[in-house]
Amino acid sequence: MISMSEHEIAAAGYHAVVSATGAGLRVLRRGGVALTETWAPGTKPPLAAGLVLFPWPNRTRDGRFTFDGAAHQLELSEPELHNASHGLVRARDWELVDAGEAFVEQAVEVGGEPGWPFPLRHVVRHEVGPDGLTATHRVTNTGTGRAPFGLGIHTFLRAGDAPMDDCTLQVPASRVQPVERQRNLPEGPVRDVTPEEDLREPRGLDGLWFDTPFTGLAREGDGRARCWLRAPDGTSACLWTSAELGWVQVFTADPRNDKAYPGRGRALAVEPMSCPPDALASGDDLVVLEAGASWTAQWGISGVLPS
């Protein structure tokens, strides 16, 4: 059941709505202009839009992984493909920790689910201000042994009312993890982007399709990597990530693949991630916390409006 509970925050011309279910970012606007795709309150977010993916993002092959010598079997949330997909918390209601006019802080705990014995507490704070939306994630190992995890956020960007195919996309990534298309699992080692995959300069999205994990993100002087979706009228949505989120999954919702975004057809997800698909099994960029230790990461979205 999807909770009707959600939290509105606003400041400096930005307005956001964050759901209790999955800590999902349901709305982000600047001056009334949409910077993310949305969905009706109290309904299931289409294509996991806006939801937090934890304690792993993307897919775990056959739901199996080994950590510190012990084998684990996760529930197969994608049974038709025999994958454990997108973690444990996207359909759960997060507890309200604190809130104000411009921020909301929510928390969830995992540990004891089938295949997941690792106790972790995850607190996320969404806050809006002059620089847009900032989301701060803090994960703490509340158990007595080491604990692995990964984090992703299934963010769909939007540049006002412009159709996606009228926009350009820029992602400062030099490397890519190839995936096989049937199950969206890693296929071969990380490699340099090909010309067809290269998004380091703005590219028109008409005719392009992606479901691709990118890494090798170029960072600016403040340590952030920035991805840009730009509309012809100058409206732009910029998604940035801190160094702890070293991956970005670019996904095109497309009716031709039976994955249309309701009311929009083609739509674009740019998803910050700490690790690639199947990281629980491969160990690639997997976060491992000692007992009592914490880890923090940030991402955010700002908007540029036509002058």
Automatic annotation (TrEMBL):
Pfam families, sorted: Aldose_epim
InterPro entries: Aldose_1/G6P_1-epimerase (IPR008183), Gal_mutarotase_sf_dom (IPR011013), GH-type_carb-bd (IPR014718), YihR-like (IPR037480)
Matches recorded under Gene3D superfamilies: 2.70.98.10
Top-level lineage group: Bacteria
Protein name, entry field: Aldose 1-epimerase family protein
